[in-house]
Amino acid sequence: MSLEVRQAAVKRGAFALAAEFDAPETGITVVFGPSGAGKSMLLSTLAGLHRLESGRITLNGRVLEDAAAKERVSPHLRGVGLVFQDARLFPHLTVRGNLRYAERRRPAHRAAPVVDEIAVQLDIVGLLDRAVRNLSGGEKSRVALARALVSAPELLLLDEPFAALDGKRRRAFLAMLRDISTKSKLPMMVVTHQIEDAAELADHVIALKDGAVVAHGPASAAMRRQEFTGLLDHRDIGARIEASAIPGGPLAAGVWVKADNVLIAAEAPRGLSARNVWEGHIASIFREPDGSALVSLATQVGYISSRITPEALADLRLEEGGKAWAVVKTHSI
Amino acid sequence: MVPAMLSAEEWRILATSLGVAGRAVVFSLPVAIAFAYALSRPRFPGKSVIDAMAHLPLVLPPVLVGFLLLLAFGRRGPIGSWLESTFGVQLAFTAEGAALATAVMAFPLMVRAIRLSFEATDRGLFEAAAVLRAGPWDRFMSLALPLAWPGVLAGAVTAFAAGMGEFGAVITFASNVPGETQTIPLAIYSALQTPNGEALALRLAAISMTAAVAGLVAAELLQRWARRRLEA
Lengths: 333, 232
Prior knowledge:
heterodimer; A: 333 residues; Rossmann fold; CATH 2.40.50.100; 2 domains; 6-stranded mixed sheet; globular; B: 232 residues; mainly alpha; MetI-like fold
Protein backbone atom coordinates (compact mmCIF):
# COMPACT_ATOMS: atom_id res chain seq x y z
CA MET A 1 0.00 0.00 0.00
CA SER A 2 1.48 3.32 -0.94
CA LEU A 3 -0.74 5.71 0.97
CA GLU A 4 -1.85 4.90 4.50
CA VAL A 5 -4.23 7.14 6.39
CA ARG A 6 -4.78 6.16 10.02
CA GLN A 7 -7.44 7.69 12.26
CA ALA A 8 -6.94 11.05 10.60
CA ALA A 9 -9.14 13.84 11.93
CA VAL A 10 -9.32 17.38 10.57
CA LYS A 11 -11.54 20.27 11.62
CA ARG A 12 -12.49 23.39 9.67
CA GLY A 13 -15.05 25.50 11.44
CA ALA A 14 -18.05 23.32 12.17
CA PHE A 15 -17.05 20.62 9.68
CA ALA A 16 -15.06 17.60 10.81
CA LEU A 17 -13.45 14.97 8.61
CA ALA A 18 -12.42 11.55 9.89
CA ALA A 19 -10.67 9.14 7.57
CA GLU A 20 -8.97 5.78 7.65
CA PHE A 21 -8.02 3.95 4.47
CA ASP A 22 -5.21 2.65 2.28
CA ALA A 23 -4.72 3.52 -1.35
CA PRO A 24 -2.69 1.30 -3.68
CA GLU A 25 0.55 2.38 -5.33
CA THR A 26 -0.76 2.22 -8.86
CA GLY A 27 -3.96 3.06 -10.63
CA ILE A 28 -6.67 5.58 -9.93
CA THR A 29 -8.42 5.87 -6.60
CA VAL A 30 -11.69 7.76 -6.89
CA VAL A 31 -12.87 9.80 -3.91
CA PHE A 32 -16.63 9.71 -4.31
CA GLY A 33 -19.44 11.36 -2.39
CA PRO A 34 -22.11 14.06 -2.49
CA SER A 35 -21.26 17.77 -2.27
CA GLY A 36 -20.12 18.73 1.21
CA ALA A 37 -18.95 15.22 2.08
CA GLY A 38 -15.37 16.44 2.62
CA LYS A 39 -13.77 15.20 -0.61
CA SER A 40 -11.78 18.36 -1.33
CA MET A 41 -10.83 18.64 2.31
CA LEU A 42 -9.44 15.11 2.26
CA LEU A 43 -7.22 15.99 -0.71
CA SER A 44 -6.05 19.27 0.85
CA THR A 45 -5.20 17.40 4.02
CA LEU A 46 -3.12 14.82 2.16
CA ALA A 47 -1.28 17.66 0.39
CA GLY A 48 -0.56 19.27 3.77
CA LEU A 49 -2.75 22.34 3.34
CA HIS A 50 -4.81 21.44 6.43
CA ARG A 51 -3.31 20.32 9.71
CA LEU A 52 -4.29 16.97 11.27
CA GLU A 53 -5.89 17.20 14.71
CA SER A 54 -4.99 13.60 15.26
CA GLY A 55 -3.91 10.56 13.29
CA ARG A 56 -1.15 9.74 10.85
CA ILE A 57 -0.49 9.83 7.10
CA THR A 58 2.32 7.86 5.46
CA LEU A 59 3.29 7.73 1.79
CA ASN A 60 5.50 4.85 0.58
CA GLY A 61 6.69 4.28 4.14
CA ARG A 62 7.55 7.96 4.71
CA VAL A 63 5.62 9.71 7.49
CA LEU A 64 4.00 12.87 6.06
CA GLU A 65 2.21 13.79 9.23
CA ASP A 66 1.84 12.28 12.67
CA ALA A 67 -0.22 14.39 15.05
CA ALA A 68 0.77 12.42 18.17
CA ALA A 69 4.49 12.67 17.42
CA LYS A 70 4.06 16.32 16.31
CA GLU A 71 5.71 15.45 13.01
CA ARG A 72 4.62 17.31 9.95
CA VAL A 73 6.20 17.58 6.51
CA SER A 74 5.49 20.95 4.83
CA PRO A 75 3.40 20.82 1.64
CA HIS A 76 6.37 21.71 -0.58
CA LEU A 77 8.42 18.78 0.74
CA ARG A 78 5.73 16.07 0.52
CA GLY A 79 6.05 15.14 -3.13
CA VAL A 80 2.27 15.20 -3.33
CA GLY A 81 0.86 17.05 -6.33
CA LEU A 82 -2.60 18.62 -6.34
CA VAL A 83 -4.62 19.82 -9.31
CA PHE A 84 -7.26 22.25 -8.07
CA GLN A 85 -10.78 22.51 -9.41
CA ASP A 86 -10.12 26.14 -10.39
CA ALA A 87 -6.73 25.35 -12.03
CA ARG A 88 -4.88 28.13 -10.15
CA LEU A 89 -2.47 28.93 -12.96
CA PHE A 90 0.00 31.72 -12.20
CA PRO A 91 -1.38 34.80 -13.99
CA HIS A 92 1.97 36.55 -14.42
CA LEU A 93 3.44 33.66 -16.39
CA THR A 94 2.64 32.19 -19.80
CA VAL A 95 1.51 28.59 -20.14
CA ARG A 96 5.13 27.60 -20.75
CA GLY A 97 6.17 29.70 -17.76
CA ASN A 98 3.72 27.77 -15.58
CA LEU A 99 5.15 24.44 -16.76
CA ARG A 100 8.74 25.64 -16.29
CA TYR A 101 7.85 26.74 -12.76
CA ALA A 102 7.09 23.10 -11.93
CA GLU A 103 10.09 21.79 -13.88
CA ARG A 104 12.62 24.02 -12.10
CA ARG A 105 11.48 22.80 -8.68
CA ARG A 106 11.43 19.10 -9.50
CA PRO A 107 14.12 17.13 -7.62
CA ALA A 108 16.84 15.81 -9.93
CA HIS A 109 16.27 12.21 -8.88
CA ARG A 110 12.63 12.12 -9.99
CA ALA A 111 12.12 10.60 -13.44
CA ALA A 112 11.56 13.57 -15.67
CA PRO A 113 8.59 13.95 -17.96
CA VAL A 114 9.80 16.59 -20.42
CA VAL A 115 7.66 19.70 -20.84
CA ASP A 116 7.46 19.21 -24.62
CA GLU A 117 6.35 15.58 -24.31
CA ILE A 118 3.61 16.41 -21.83
CA ALA A 119 2.49 19.31 -23.98
CA VAL A 120 2.00 16.92 -26.89
CA GLN A 121 0.23 14.33 -24.75
CA LEU A 122 -2.23 16.86 -23.32
CA ASP A 123 -2.67 18.72 -26.60
CA ILE A 124 -1.49 22.09 -25.33
CA VAL A 125 1.46 22.65 -27.70
CA GLY A 126 -0.38 25.48 -29.42
CA LEU A 127 -1.04 27.18 -26.07
CA LEU A 128 2.52 27.28 -24.73
CA ASP A 129 3.17 30.93 -25.48
CA ARG A 130 -0.30 32.16 -24.51
CA ALA A 131 -1.12 34.19 -21.41
CA VAL A 132 -3.17 32.08 -19.01
CA ARG A 133 -5.99 34.64 -18.81
CA ASN A 134 -6.86 33.95 -22.44
CA LEU A 135 -7.43 30.21 -21.98
CA SER A 136 -10.81 28.51 -21.97
CA GLY A 137 -11.93 26.40 -19.01
CA GLY A 138 -10.92 23.15 -20.69
CA GLU A 139 -7.54 24.53 -21.69
CA LYS A 140 -6.89 25.72 -18.13
CA SER A 141 -7.70 22.23 -16.82
CA ARG A 142 -5.26 20.61 -19.21
CA VAL A 143 -2.50 23.10 -18.43
CA ALA A 144 -3.03 22.60 -14.68
CA LEU A 145 -2.78 18.84 -15.15
CA ALA A 146 0.32 19.24 -17.33
CA ARG A 147 1.95 21.47 -14.70
CA ALA A 148 1.31 18.87 -12.00
CA LEU A 149 2.71 16.06 -14.18
CA VAL A 150 5.86 18.04 -14.98
CA SER A 151 6.46 18.36 -11.26
CA ALA A 152 6.70 14.52 -11.07
CA PRO A 153 4.96 13.95 -7.73
CA GLU A 154 4.91 10.57 -5.98
CA LEU A 155 1.15 10.85 -5.68
CA LEU A 156 -1.10 13.08 -7.75
CA LEU A 157 -4.36 14.39 -6.31
CA LEU A 158 -7.02 15.81 -8.62
CA ASP A 159 -9.88 17.82 -7.19
CA GLU A 160 -12.44 17.42 -9.95
CA PRO A 161 -10.41 19.44 -12.47
CA PHE A 162 -12.92 18.46 -15.16
CA ALA A 163 -15.90 19.98 -13.29
CA ALA A 164 -16.09 22.88 -15.75
CA LEU A 165 -16.12 20.56 -18.77
CA ASP A 166 -19.18 18.96 -20.26
CA GLY A 167 -20.09 16.22 -22.70
CA LYS A 168 -17.42 15.26 -25.17
CA ARG A 169 -14.64 17.36 -23.63
CA ARG A 170 -15.29 15.83 -20.23
CA ARG A 171 -15.14 12.29 -21.63
CA ALA A 172 -11.92 13.17 -23.46
CA PHE A 173 -10.36 14.52 -20.26
CA LEU A 174 -11.31 11.39 -18.30
CA ALA A 175 -9.94 9.15 -21.05
CA MET A 176 -6.71 11.14 -20.93
CA LEU A 177 -6.45 10.59 -17.17
CA ARG A 178 -6.91 6.82 -17.66
CA ASP A 179 -4.28 6.84 -20.37
CA ILE A 180 -1.76 8.75 -18.21
CA SER A 181 -2.42 6.49 -15.24
CA THR A 182 -1.84 3.35 -17.32
CA LYS A 183 1.32 4.62 -19.01
CA SER A 184 3.01 6.52 -16.20
CA LYS A 185 2.29 4.25 -13.23
CA LEU A 186 1.71 7.45 -11.28
CA PRO A 187 -0.84 6.78 -8.53
CA MET A 188 -3.72 9.24 -8.64
CA MET A 189 -6.59 10.15 -6.38
CA VAL A 190 -9.45 11.82 -8.21
CA VAL A 191 -12.43 13.54 -6.62
CA THR A 192 -15.79 13.34 -8.34
CA HIS A 193 -19.45 13.38 -7.37
CA GLN A 194 -20.64 11.91 -10.68
CA ILE A 195 -21.19 8.18 -10.70
CA GLU A 196 -20.36 7.77 -14.42
CA ASP A 197 -16.99 9.46 -13.90
CA ALA A 198 -16.32 7.34 -10.83
CA ALA A 199 -17.05 4.09 -12.68
CA GLU A 200 -14.99 5.14 -15.67
CA LEU A 201 -11.90 6.13 -13.68
CA ALA A 202 -11.82 3.99 -10.58
CA ASP A 203 -9.61 1.02 -9.94
CA HIS A 204 -10.17 1.75 -6.29
CA VAL A 205 -12.84 3.72 -4.45
CA ILE A 206 -13.11 5.76 -1.28
CA ALA A 207 -16.69 6.81 -0.59
CA LEU A 208 -17.30 9.74 1.76
CA LYS A 209 -20.43 10.95 3.47
CA ASP A 210 -20.68 13.77 6.01
CA GLY A 211 -16.94 13.72 6.60
CA ALA A 212 -16.61 9.98 7.13
CA VAL A 213 -15.40 7.11 4.94
CA VAL A 214 -18.41 4.84 4.40
CA ALA A 215 -16.86 2.38 1.94
CA HIS A 216 -13.46 1.77 0.38
CA GLY A 217 -11.68 -0.92 -1.58
CA PRO A 218 -11.33 -2.17 -5.16
CA ALA A 219 -13.98 -0.56 -7.38
CA SER A 220 -15.46 -3.90 -8.45
CA ALA A 221 -16.39 -4.74 -4.86
CA ALA A 222 -16.76 -1.35 -3.16
CA MET A 223 -19.18 0.08 -5.73
CA ARG A 224 -21.61 -2.78 -5.11
CA ARG A 225 -21.77 -2.21 -1.38
CA GLN A 226 -24.97 -0.78 0.07
CA GLU A 227 -22.99 1.92 1.87
CA PHE A 228 -21.85 3.06 -1.57
CA THR A 229 -25.11 2.79 -3.50
CA GLY A 230 -26.82 4.52 -0.59
CA LEU A 231 -24.99 7.70 -1.64
CA LEU A 232 -26.59 7.69 -5.07
CA ASP A 233 -29.60 9.58 -6.34
CA HIS A 234 -32.66 7.50 -7.17
CA ARG A 235 -32.01 8.06 -10.93
CA ASP A 236 -28.37 7.01 -10.65
CA ILE A 237 -28.98 3.59 -9.11
CA GLY A 238 -27.33 0.94 -11.23
CA ALA A 239 -24.31 -1.30 -11.40
CA ARG A 240 -20.70 -1.17 -12.49
CA ILE A 241 -19.53 -3.44 -15.30
CA GLU A 242 -15.83 -3.99 -16.00
CA ALA A 243 -15.07 -2.23 -19.28
CA SER A 244 -12.96 -5.20 -20.35
CA ALA A 245 -16.07 -7.41 -20.16
CA ILE A 246 -17.75 -5.45 -22.94
CA PRO A 247 -16.65 -6.33 -26.49
CA GLY A 248 -15.50 -3.10 -28.13
CA GLY A 249 -16.10 -1.26 -24.87
CA PRO A 250 -14.48 2.06 -23.97
CA LEU A 251 -10.91 2.49 -22.70
CA ALA A 252 -12.02 2.85 -19.12
CA ALA A 253 -11.86 0.96 -15.87
CA GLY A 254 -15.57 0.37 -15.81
CA VAL A 255 -18.94 1.51 -16.99
CA TRP A 256 -21.88 2.52 -14.84
CA VAL A 257 -25.09 1.09 -16.23
CA LYS A 258 -28.10 2.82 -14.71
CA ALA A 259 -31.03 0.62 -13.82
CA ASP A 260 -33.30 2.92 -15.84
CA ASN A 261 -31.34 2.05 -19.00
CA VAL A 262 -31.67 -1.71 -18.67
CA LEU A 263 -34.55 -3.84 -20.00
CA ILE A 264 -35.34 -7.25 -18.58
CA ALA A 265 -36.50 -10.09 -20.76
CA ALA A 266 -37.92 -13.34 -19.42
CA GLU A 267 -36.92 -15.16 -22.62
CA ALA A 268 -33.83 -14.91 -24.82
CA PRO A 269 -34.46 -11.81 -26.92
CA ARG A 270 -34.14 -12.04 -30.71
CA GLY A 271 -33.98 -9.49 -33.47
CA LEU A 272 -32.91 -6.64 -31.22
CA SER A 273 -30.71 -3.67 -32.15
CA ALA A 274 -29.01 -3.62 -28.74
CA ARG A 275 -25.58 -5.23 -28.90
CA ASN A 276 -25.35 -5.94 -25.21
CA VAL A 277 -27.57 -8.73 -24.05
CA TRP A 278 -26.52 -10.76 -21.03
CA GLU A 279 -28.07 -13.88 -19.63
CA GLY A 280 -28.21 -14.37 -15.88
CA HIS A 281 -30.08 -15.34 -12.78
CA ILE A 282 -32.19 -13.00 -10.74
CA ALA A 283 -30.26 -12.39 -7.53
CA SER A 284 -32.75 -10.10 -5.85
CA ILE A 285 -35.93 -8.13 -6.43
CA PHE A 286 -36.28 -4.98 -4.39
CA ARG A 287 -39.58 -3.11 -4.25
CA GLU A 288 -39.03 0.64 -4.12
CA PRO A 289 -41.36 2.93 -2.13
CA ASP A 290 -43.06 4.13 -5.37
CA GLY A 291 -43.91 0.52 -6.31
CA SER A 292 -41.34 0.02 -9.05
CA ALA A 293 -39.02 -2.93 -8.75
CA LEU A 294 -35.25 -3.03 -8.83
CA VAL A 295 -34.24 -6.35 -10.31
CA SER A 296 -30.63 -7.42 -9.84
CA LEU A 297 -29.33 -9.97 -12.30
CA ALA A 298 -26.14 -12.01 -11.74
CA THR A 299 -24.52 -12.33 -15.17
CA GLN A 300 -21.11 -13.31 -16.50
CA VAL A 301 -20.09 -9.62 -16.52
CA GLY A 302 -21.23 -9.10 -12.95
CA TYR A 303 -24.42 -7.78 -11.46
CA ILE A 304 -26.72 -5.67 -13.61
CA SER A 305 -29.71 -3.81 -12.18
CA SER A 306 -32.91 -2.98 -13.98
CA ARG A 307 -35.75 -0.81 -12.79
CA ILE A 308 -39.15 -2.01 -14.03
CA THR A 309 -42.75 -1.15 -13.32
CA PRO A 310 -44.90 -3.28 -10.98
CA GLU A 311 -47.00 -4.29 -14.02
CA ALA A 312 -43.95 -5.56 -15.91
CA LEU A 313 -42.83 -7.47 -12.84
CA ALA A 314 -46.21 -9.22 -12.67
CA ASP A 315 -46.44 -9.85 -16.46
CA LEU A 316 -42.97 -11.36 -16.71
CA ARG A 317 -43.50 -13.46 -13.58
CA LEU A 318 -39.95 -12.74 -12.46
CA GLU A 319 -38.81 -14.51 -9.33
CA GLU A 320 -35.57 -14.63 -7.38
CA GLY A 321 -33.39 -17.45 -8.69
CA GLY A 322 -35.14 -17.45 -12.08
CA LYS A 323 -33.48 -16.99 -15.45
CA ALA A 324 -33.65 -13.66 -17.28
CA TRP A 325 -31.83 -11.53 -19.84
CA ALA A 326 -30.58 -7.98 -19.36
CA VAL A 327 -30.64 -5.75 -22.43
CA VAL A 328 -28.50 -2.60 -22.40
CA LYS A 329 -28.61 0.00 -25.14
CA THR A 330 -25.10 0.59 -26.45
CA HIS A 331 -25.28 4.38 -26.14
CA SER A 332 -25.82 4.07 -22.41
CA ILE A 333 -22.44 2.36 -22.04
CA MET B 1 3.42 84.97 -15.51
CA VAL B 2 5.70 82.00 -14.92
CA PRO B 3 8.60 81.90 -17.37
CA ALA B 4 9.19 78.37 -18.62
CA MET B 5 12.91 78.33 -17.86
CA LEU B 6 14.06 77.66 -14.33
CA SER B 7 16.83 79.73 -12.76
CA ALA B 8 19.99 78.12 -11.42
CA GLU B 9 18.68 78.54 -7.90
CA GLU B 10 15.38 76.86 -8.79
CA TRP B 11 17.22 74.00 -10.45
CA ARG B 12 19.29 73.54 -7.32
CA ILE B 13 16.18 73.48 -5.11
CA LEU B 14 14.43 71.00 -7.44
CA ALA B 15 17.54 68.80 -7.55
CA THR B 16 17.78 68.80 -3.74
CA SER B 17 14.11 67.81 -3.50
CA LEU B 18 14.43 65.02 -6.07
CA GLY B 19 17.59 63.74 -4.39
CA VAL B 20 16.08 63.74 -0.91
CA ALA B 21 12.80 62.11 -1.97
CA GLY B 22 14.61 59.62 -4.22
CA ARG B 23 16.99 58.45 -1.53
CA ALA B 24 14.14 58.30 0.99
CA VAL B 25 12.17 55.94 -1.26
CA VAL B 26 15.07 53.74 -2.37
CA PHE B 27 16.29 53.05 1.15
CA SER B 28 12.92 52.60 2.83
CA LEU B 29 11.36 50.46 0.07
CA PRO B 30 12.77 47.07 1.21
CA VAL B 31 11.67 47.80 4.78
CA ALA B 32 8.23 48.87 3.57
CA ILE B 33 7.89 45.67 1.50
CA ALA B 34 8.79 43.57 4.54
CA PHE B 35 6.27 45.42 6.74
CA ALA B 36 3.56 45.26 4.08
CA TYR B 37 4.07 41.54 3.48
CA ALA B 38 3.98 40.79 7.20
CA LEU B 39 0.79 42.84 7.60
CA SER B 40 -0.87 41.10 4.64
CA ARG B 41 -0.45 37.71 6.31
CA PRO B 42 -3.19 36.19 8.48
CA ARG B 43 -2.99 36.91 12.21
CA PHE B 44 0.31 36.40 13.96
CA PRO B 45 1.58 37.51 17.39
CA GLY B 46 2.71 41.13 17.36
CA LYS B 47 0.80 42.03 14.20
CA SER B 48 -1.07 44.92 15.83
CA VAL B 49 2.21 46.32 17.21
CA ILE B 50 3.78 46.28 13.75
CA ASP B 51 0.62 47.80 12.29
CA ALA B 52 0.70 50.63 14.86
CA MET B 53 4.42 51.25 14.27
CA ALA B 54 3.93 51.50 10.52
CA HIS B 55 1.10 54.00 10.89
CA LEU B 56 2.52 56.14 13.71
CA PRO B 57 4.07 58.83 11.44
CA LEU B 58 0.61 59.39 9.95
CA VAL B 59 -0.85 60.58 13.26
CA LEU B 60 2.18 62.19 14.95
CA PRO B 61 2.86 65.88 14.25
CA PRO B 62 5.72 66.01 11.68
CA VAL B 63 7.67 68.34 13.94
CA LEU B 64 7.50 65.75 16.68
CA VAL B 65 8.80 63.08 14.30
CA GLY B 66 11.70 65.39 13.42
CA PHE B 67 12.36 66.01 17.11
CA LEU B 68 12.30 62.27 17.92
CA LEU B 69 14.75 61.66 15.07
CA LEU B 70 16.96 64.40 16.48
CA LEU B 71 16.88 62.72 19.90
CA ALA B 72 17.82 59.34 18.43
CA PHE B 73 20.01 60.24 15.44
CA GLY B 74 21.40 63.62 16.57
CA ARG B 75 25.14 63.82 17.31
CA ARG B 76 24.46 63.17 20.99
CA GLY B 77 21.63 60.70 20.42
CA PRO B 78 22.33 56.97 21.07
CA ILE B 79 22.16 55.94 17.39
CA GLY B 80 23.62 59.18 16.02
CA SER B 81 26.72 59.08 18.21
CA TRP B 82 27.26 55.39 17.40
CA LEU B 83 26.96 56.08 13.66
CA GLU B 84 29.45 58.94 13.90
CA SER B 85 32.02 57.05 15.98
CA THR B 86 31.74 53.81 13.95
CA PHE B 87 31.22 55.00 10.39
CA GLY B 88 31.93 58.72 10.65
CA VAL B 89 28.42 59.35 9.36
CA GLN B 90 26.42 62.34 10.49
CA LEU B 91 22.70 62.49 9.73
CA ALA B 92 21.36 65.56 11.50
CA PHE B 93 21.53 68.70 9.30
CA THR B 94 22.59 66.74 6.19
CA ALA B 95 20.86 65.70 2.95
CA GLU B 96 20.95 62.09 4.22
CA GLY B 97 19.18 63.26 7.36
CA ALA B 98 16.54 65.01 5.24
CA ALA B 99 16.08 61.74 3.33
CA LEU B 100 15.69 59.81 6.60
CA ALA B 101 13.05 62.24 7.90
CA THR B 102 11.24 62.10 4.55
CA ALA B 103 11.39 58.30 4.51
CA VAL B 104 9.86 58.02 7.98
CA MET B 105 7.01 60.38 7.07
CA ALA B 106 6.26 58.65 3.73
CA PHE B 107 6.58 55.15 5.19
CA PRO B 108 2.87 54.61 6.07
CA LEU B 109 1.78 55.60 2.55
CA MET B 110 4.19 53.17 1.01
CA VAL B 111 3.28 50.30 3.34
CA ARG B 112 -0.41 50.85 2.68
CA ALA B 113 -0.19 50.75 -1.12
CA ILE B 114 2.08 47.70 -1.11
CA ARG B 115 0.00 45.87 1.47
CA LEU B 116 -3.18 46.33 -0.57
CA SER B 117 -1.38 44.80 -3.51
CA PHE B 118 -0.24 41.78 -1.48
CA GLU B 119 -3.73 41.34 -0.07
CA ALA B 120 -5.28 41.44 -3.53
CA THR B 121 -3.29 38.34 -4.55
CA ASP B 122 -5.32 35.12 -4.58
CA ARG B 123 -4.10 33.03 -1.63
CA GLY B 124 -4.97 29.90 -3.57
CA LEU B 125 -2.03 30.57 -5.87
CA PHE B 126 0.33 30.14 -2.93
CA GLU B 127 -1.17 26.73 -2.18
CA ALA B 128 -0.73 25.83 -5.84
CA ALA B 129 2.93 26.88 -5.63
CA ALA B 130 3.44 24.93 -2.40
CA VAL B 131 2.26 21.67 -3.96
CA LEU B 132 4.69 22.35 -6.83
CA ARG B 133 7.48 22.24 -4.23
CA ALA B 134 7.97 25.98 -3.70
CA GLY B 135 8.97 26.78 -0.11
CA PRO B 136 7.91 29.96 1.76
CA TRP B 137 10.82 32.18 0.61
CA ASP B 138 10.54 30.78 -2.91
CA ARG B 139 6.81 31.60 -2.94
CA PHE B 140 7.53 35.16 -1.80
CA MET B 141 10.15 35.72 -4.52
CA SER B 142 8.45 33.83 -7.35
CA LEU B 143 4.81 34.76 -6.71
CA ALA B 144 4.10 37.38 -4.05
CA LEU B 145 6.60 39.97 -5.30
CA PRO B 146 6.08 39.59 -9.06
CA LEU B 147 2.30 39.68 -8.64
CA ALA B 148 2.41 42.69 -6.33
CA TRP B 149 5.14 44.69 -7.99
CA PRO B 150 2.92 47.19 -9.84
CA GLY B 151 1.50 47.96 -6.40
CA VAL B 152 5.00 48.20 -4.99
CA LEU B 153 5.88 50.67 -7.74
CA ALA B 154 2.68 52.63 -7.10
CA GLY B 155 3.54 52.81 -3.40
CA ALA B 156 7.04 54.03 -4.22
CA VAL B 157 5.74 56.70 -6.61
CA THR B 158 3.14 57.94 -4.10
CA ALA B 159 5.77 58.07 -1.37
CA PHE B 160 8.15 59.91 -3.71
CA ALA B 161 5.52 62.53 -4.58
CA ALA B 162 4.57 62.98 -0.93
CA GLY B 163 8.25 63.02 0.05
CA MET B 164 8.90 65.99 -2.23
CA GLY B 165 6.55 68.00 -0.03
CA GLU B 166 7.66 66.97 3.46
CA PHE B 167 8.27 70.03 5.64
CA GLY B 168 7.98 69.69 9.41
CA ALA B 169 10.11 66.63 10.02
CA VAL B 170 12.81 67.75 7.56
CA ILE B 171 13.21 71.29 8.90
CA THR B 172 13.31 70.04 12.49
CA PHE B 173 15.80 67.22 11.95
CA ALA B 174 17.84 68.42 8.96
CA SER B 175 17.35 72.20 9.14
CA ASN B 176 17.03 74.51 6.13
CA VAL B 177 20.47 74.51 4.43
CA PRO B 178 20.38 75.76 0.81
CA GLY B 179 21.90 73.19 -1.57
CA GLU B 180 21.94 70.54 1.15
CA THR B 181 18.58 70.14 2.86
CA GLN B 182 16.55 72.99 1.36
CA THR B 183 13.81 71.16 -0.51
CA ILE B 184 10.94 72.91 -2.36
CA PRO B 185 8.62 73.42 0.63
CA LEU B 186 11.52 74.71 2.74
CA ALA B 187 12.54 77.06 -0.06
CA ILE B 188 8.95 78.35 -0.37
CA TYR B 189 8.96 78.98 3.37
CA SER B 190 12.27 80.88 3.11
CA ALA B 191 11.07 82.86 0.11
CA LEU B 192 7.96 83.96 1.95
CA GLN B 193 10.17 85.23 4.81
CA THR B 194 12.20 87.31 2.33
CA PRO B 195 10.97 90.72 1.08
CA ASN B 196 9.66 90.39 -2.54
CA GLY B 197 10.01 86.62 -2.36
CA GLU B 198 6.41 85.92 -3.46
CA ALA B 199 7.32 85.50 -7.14
CA LEU B 200 9.89 82.79 -6.33
CA ALA B 201 7.45 81.15 -3.90
CA LEU B 202 4.77 81.04 -6.59
CA ARG B 203 7.10 79.52 -9.18
CA LEU B 204 8.27 76.90 -6.67
CA ALA B 205 4.65 76.15 -5.79
CA ALA B 206 3.91 75.51 -9.47
CA ILE B 207 6.87 73.14 -9.76
CA SER B 208 5.80 71.33 -6.61
CA MET B 209 2.22 71.01 -7.80
CA THR B 210 3.29 69.63 -11.18
CA ALA B 211 5.51 67.01 -9.58
CA ALA B 212 2.78 65.95 -7.12
CA VAL B 213 0.08 65.62 -9.79
CA ALA B 214 2.42 63.68 -12.08
CA GLY B 215 3.18 61.32 -9.19
CA LEU B 216 -0.48 60.70 -8.40
CA VAL B 217 -1.39 60.06 -12.03
CA ALA B 218 1.51 57.63 -12.38
CA ALA B 219 0.46 55.81 -9.21
CA GLU B 220 -3.15 55.52 -10.38
CA LEU B 221 -2.10 54.13 -13.77
CA LEU B 222 0.14 51.59 -12.07
CA GLN B 223 -2.66 50.47 -9.76
CA ARG B 224 -5.01 49.92 -12.71
CA TRP B 225 -2.37 47.89 -14.49
CA ALA B 226 -1.86 45.88 -11.31
CA ARG B 227 -5.57 45.01 -11.11
CA ARG B 228 -5.64 43.92 -14.75
CA ARG B 229 -2.61 41.70 -14.25
CA LEU B 230 -4.19 39.83 -11.37
CA GLU B 231 -7.26 38.78 -13.33
CA ALA B 232 -6.40 35.24 -14.30
